[in-house]
Amino acid sequence: MILDTNAISSAADQDPAIAMVLSGADRVGVPVIALGEYRFGIEQSRHRERYKLWLESFILDCTVFEVVQETSFHYAELVAEVRRIGKPIPTNDLWIAALCRQHALPLLSRDHHFDVIPALRRLTW
Predict the structure, then answer these.
(1) d(CA 29, CA 17)
(2) Most CB atoms within 10 A, among 72, 77, 114, 123?
(3) CA-based nearest residue to 109, from 14, 23, 24, 31
(4) Model confidence at 116, in pLDDT bands (50, 70, 90)?
(5) Is 3.40.50.1010 the CATH number for 2-123?
(6) Residue 6: CB partners within 8 Å, gap ≥ 6?
(7) Packed helices 32-44 and 48-58: angle between N→C axes, nearest 10 degrees
(8) CA distance 118 to 116
(9) In the beta sheet, which residues pair with residue 3?
(10) Strand-strand pairing, 107-108 and 2-3
(11) Taking the domains of the chain in order of start, what are their residue ranges?
């Protein structure tokens, strides 16, 4: 599964519900986009040192999914799809969804706007 930024945040805050979901996952991936969003959040936090240390440890057990040329094809298709149905989604989330589609993995997120994307399985906790 691929983690959205809110899933990373919940894992960092040691939410027992997300810990259970993650413990059952065969593969945990983090999109570089969500990683950047989370790192920005760390910079805004008064607990930045604790979160930085946690992230360094957590990321060792994850696959970091980078945006590559193949991702751009999935992104372009997704933008066209959501425009056709008139349901805008934030740009960063479209890139995250493109990575999910590219790697055929579900997304762990609490953001319901992902539900309008065809063939994207959103998991929650």
Answers:
(1) 18
(2) 114
(3) 31
(4) very high
(5) yes
(6) 109, 110, 111
(7) 160
(8) 6
(9) 108
(10) parallel
(11) 2-123
Provide the pLDDT confidence category of residue 115 given band limits of 50, 70 and 90: very high
- Cα Rg of the chain, angstroms: 14
- What is the average pLDDT score of the chain? 97
Copy the structure tokens of residue 104: 């055929």
Element (H, E) at 101: helix 91-103
Q: Whole-angstrom Cα distance, residue 11 to residue 45? A: 16
**What are the structure tokens assigned to 20, written together?**
């259970």
Amino acid at 29: G
Q: Is the pLDDT of residue 44 over 90?
A: yes
pLDDT > 90? residue 36: yes
